[in-house]
Each structure stands twice: as structure tokens, then as C-alpha cells.
Amino acid sequence: MCGIVGYVGPRPSQDILLAGLARLEYRGYDSAGIAVIDESGELGMRKKAGKLKELRDSLATAALGDGTTGIGHTRWATHGGPTDVNAHPHLADDDRLAVIHNGIIENFAALRDELAAEGVTFRSETDTEVAAALLGREYRRTGDLQQAFRDVVNRLEGAFTLLAMHKDHPGLVVGARRNSPLVIGLGEGENFLGSDVAAFVEHTRKALAIGQDQIVAITPSEVTVTDFDGNPVEAAPFDVSWDAAAAEKGGWSSFMAKEVAEQPEAVGNTIRGRIKDGQVVIPELDGMDELFTGIRRVIITACGTASYAALVGKYAIEQWARVPVDVELAHEFRYRDPVIGDDTLVVSISQSGETMDTLMAVKYARERGARTLSICNTQGATIPRESDAVVYTHAGPEVAVASTKAFSAQITALLLLGLHMGRVRATLSDASAEVAELAALPEKIATVLSEEHDHVEQLAHWMADTRSVLFLGRHVGFPIALEGALKLKEISYIHAEGFAAGELKHGPIALIEPGQPVFVIVPSPRHSALIHSKVVSNIQEIRARGARVIVVAEEGDAAVLPYADEVIRIPLAGAMFEPVLAVVPLQIFAMALATAKGLDVDQPRNLAKSVTVE
Ligand code: M6R
């Protein structure tokens, strides 16, 4: 939610900011703006409702000049609609000071009343302008930007990343974070700030992570980090493991198309280095066996697509590590009174590592004494920093709002975790078959991509006018049904629902009328003839009521043929590994259908990739 970039250095900042915003646009794209200060202390600002292109077009007509200090913002609206006026930056102190913000300032109404009583007037409906006005007041009082900034952040409640600059101080950008992301990029004679490393990876891969409730000041030659009281703090350095090209479209029609195609690599990279002597050994968990041995239960918490990966993880961890696993939506978890303690391992899953609901669930779990482990795709992100342990997925940067390669990498990480736990807890004596399945996964995903892509795309074209699609699955096919429905909803705006196939007769079957398309994820009969036969019965039930049945089944499964209008084939795989294959055609289907409808698959309406508000 909202992308933030800051720059100080010798180069004109306008294009650097725009390029950074382009890489951060996945975080929000309903308006964008930049402000720059030049050597003589002139502050220029431009902001526009709409996607970044609107701002670019405006700057192409009249640039802001060659100011070498700047801040930029791409917005996902919270307070106030997506208009020019509500776009960031917000100015204060007689337009001498510019502020951008990501998050929600919860006490903004009280602060706004306080300032209004002093005669301050506001142009926008945003909480951000209140912070800007407060900073203006404190700067006039202290004459010291950094002191004033500290005073302001100490008065704010809620979640925020805030960047500010003042025309009295060319060459200085100050920033702060609480429960919202901010990282520092270290250049040669120049420095950067960004919501994530994508903001500056084109210029430097050396970065510093900033902790909670910390303030940073960057000049071209210096970076200082303090806590909210001004005490110096050491920021954690890290190297960005991917380069700018990884976050480019590189000839693909969309980031989503590229990311779907990158799944063999994403899964392969997530497995790499984690198999030793025929066993799964996750090096990051070295010396942490106690995390898994002294527990009586596991809770996996996540949101959206990551929560569906969690459901697959439940089956795998329970089977291999013989410990009860519950899956909790992060935004529900801490609003009841869950029974957790030091015998509970709370595993969080997040591609971004910044999802506020998930972060809050992790913090809550820690406060209650639980052990915490995160599965995350983003280095330097907040959730892993707040957890006792982290297992990174190595999917590379995921830019499209709809999660695809991160999902398959999350399932892979959960499979690795389940096998690691099974070894440590001595509940799985021989994992050689599972290890072989893992090693074969990338190749099998590549097979689905090459053999079914055109077939599924054609199907989507035929179905471009469809108004509703249902998805059914059983066992680990159930989360895939949920994920198939979510993909379709979020990028093609079609009504879609995923159900556990066994639940059908308890209500949803009433939705079936002649012609209703239903995707059914059919598990292999080799794993369980019983589960397979139940799903085939479910297919017969909907078929009898006129449904148009599209089956995703393993090669050679002939039992589905008499009842299916279409059959999409996936290679033979172990029961826990099938979901990574079965989801691929559903991703392709959603993407092709959205494309057939002329929609922007990378930036669907109303959404943002990283949801950093609750
Ligand atoms: O960054 P996270 O994995 O924590 O994000 C969680 C969800 O917001 C995310 O998976 C969302 O559901 C995707 N847009 C789905 O494609």
C-alpha cells in the first residue's frame, strides 16, 4: 500500500524518482507525485490522480527542474479519494516542506483539530497532510528539521513510513517507520530510501534494513539511524540478491505472464541448498531443533493466497511431522483469544513480509510466548525481522498484484519445512521418496506450462463471456480450488468461488444450473482410490445437473473422461506435490480470461500488492 522513494546525491532526482516509482507501482496506483529541491533551495512539486503515466506525461510537458534531492510516492488511497489534491507529496510551512507517507495515522483527527484550532487550514482529506502541518509547526518552533521530525513521529499513532524534506536543507531527506516498510540503499556519493529495494536496485544492491520505530537521515555522503528518542542505532546491512533485470518485464506481455513462466525456477531456487545426503536440511534452521521438538501444535497464519499455501502446508506438516496444525487468517487470529503459549509454533507466510495483518499476528503470537517462524520472499522485510526464525522463498521479485510464483514457492517452502520437521522430530524415518518428488517438481511445472498453456488459453477465450465459475477440490486440491477462484476474481472481476468438493451437497450444489462452468481438481487415484472415487462422484453429481465440467487430473486418469467437457493434464506426482502442478493451469486460465476481456492483469482495480494497512 503506497510506494515511497527518496534520493539525495549529485544527479537530477526527477528521473530517478520516476524510475523508482515505476518499480513500486505494484504497491498502489491510484495517484502519484514527486517533490524535488535544487541547490538554490527551490522546492518543486507535481502530483496527479491516476497511474504513474499521468504524472510522467505531466512532467514530460513541464519538468520540475534538476533538483538533486527528492521524494516520490505512488498511492493506494485510505483517507480521501484518489484525486490530485489527495495525492502525495503534501506541503506545509508555506510550501517549503514536503512530506510523503505510507500507512494510517490513527490519531489524525485529534491532531487535525489541534492544528485547526491554531488556524491551520487543510487542502486535502488525508491524514498525511496533518503530519506535514505538524512538522511545519515543529520546524518553525525548533528551527531544526531532525528534531522537529522526531517530535512529530513521537506524536503519531498507527502505522507509518514518513519521508520529509525542507527547502532550507537541500541534500537531506529524513524518514521514519513504524509498522510500515522502509529500507536504505547505499550508493557512491548518493543514497536512497525506498519502501522496498525495488526502488533503488537499479542503482545499488547494497542496503540497510531499518528496524521498528527508527528514524533515518540521508545526505549524499552520510546515513544516520536513530530510535525515536534520537539515540544512535546500528542498521543491519544486506546485499540484494537479485538485479534490476529480474524486476523488468523483459519482453513478456505482463509481469504476471512472466512470473507464471518463472515458476520452475522459483521452486528450484527455493529447494536449492536445502537437500543434504538425501534429507531435507534447511541451513537457516541450524541449531534450532528445539523450535520443533518442544511443541504441541502449529498455527500457520497468513492472508489471501499465502493462506491457501498454508492450507497445503497443514496437510504436509501433519502427515510428516505428526503435530496438529491449524491455519488462521491473520486478521482473525488476534481478535479472539487464541490458546497459545510456548508449546505453540506460529508459522507466518508472506510474500512481501510487510502485510500488516500478518505482522500484527506475529507480534501478538510473540507477546503470548509462542515461537515464531516466517516464510517470506523479501529480504529485509519486517515480518522475518519480528520472527524467531525465517525460511526464505527464493522466487525473486514478484511484481504483478496477483501472486503466482510466490505461491508455488511458499508451498515448496512448507513442504521443505514439513520434511525438515519430520526429520528433527523423528517422525519420518525415510524421506527419500519425498526428496525425489521435490527435486522433480521444477521439471514437472515446466511440463504443465509447455503442454497445457495453449489449451487453457484457448479455453479462456471461449469462456470470455462467462459470468461465474466454480472450483472444487478435496484434500490438498481444496486450497487449490480456493486459489483458482481468487485468481479469477482478482484479475478478471468474474464471480468465482472455491469449495471443498464434499461440501457441495450441503448447499453450493444449488448454484449449479445448465452451462455453469466448474473446474474440478482431481487427486490421483494412486494416492487414495477412496478420495479419487469421491471426487469422481462429485463430478457426476454436478454433471447430472448440467454443469460444464473442466477437470484438472493427472496423466492417464481415465475415470474422469466420461464426465468431463475438458480435461487438463498434469504429470504424475506425490500427493503433497500435486498442488504446485494443479494451480498452474488455473493461473493461466485467469490471466488469459482477463486478457481476453481487455483488463490490466498486473494492476487490477482496487488492489495493491502489499497490504500494509489493517
Ligand atoms: O505479501 P503477502 O504474501 O503477505 O500478501 C498476502 C495477500 O495480500 C496476497 O497473497 C493477495 O491475496 C494476492 N493479491 C493474491 O494474488
Protein architecture, described:
A hairpin with a 4-residue loop joins strand 9 and strand 10 (191-194). The chain is an alpha/beta fold. The longest helix has 31 residues, at 432-462. Helix content is 36%, strand content 23%. The strands form five sheets. Strands 3-2-4-1-10-9-11-14 form an eight-stranded antiparallel beta sheet, covered by helices on one side. It has a six-stranded antiparallel beta sheet with strand order 5-6-7-8-12-13. Helix 4 (127-142) packs across helix 5, helix 7 packs parallel to helix 13 and helix 9 packs antiparallel against helix 15. It is globular, with a radius of gyration of 25 Å. It folds into two domains: 3-246, Aminohydrolase, N-terminal nucleophile (Ntn) domain (Glutamine Phosphoribosylpyrophosphate, subunit 1, domain 1); 255-596, Glucose-6-phosphate isomerase like protein, domain 1 (Rossmann fold), CATH 3.40.50. 5-amino-5-deoxy-1-O-phosphono-D-mannitol binds at residues 303-306, 350-352, 355, 358, 401-403, 486, 490, 610-611.
- Architecture per CATH nomenclature, i.e. the level-2 architecture of the largest domain: 3-Layer(aba) Sandwich
Largest sheet: 8 strands, antiparallel
Identify the overall geometry.
globular
Estimate the strand proportion.
15-25%
The number of distinct helices, counting runs of at least 4 residues, comes to 17
* Widest sheet: strand ordering: 3-2-4-1-10-9-11-14
Termini separation comes to 11 Å
Structural domain tally: 2
Got a strand count?
A: 26
**Uncertain spans, ≥5 residues at pLDDT below 50?**
none
On the 0-100 scale, what is the average pLDDT?
A: 95
Q: What oligomeric assembly is this protein in?
A: single chain
**CATH superfamily heading of the largest domain:** Glucose-6-phosphate isomerase like protein, domain 1
**At the third CATH level, what is the topology name of the largest domain?**
Rossmann fold
Find the structural class using helix and strand composition.
alpha/beta
Q: Which cofactors or ions or other ligands sit in this model?
A: 5-amino-5-deoxy-1-O-phosphono-D-mannitol
CATH class of the largest domain: Alpha Beta
Helix content: 25-40%
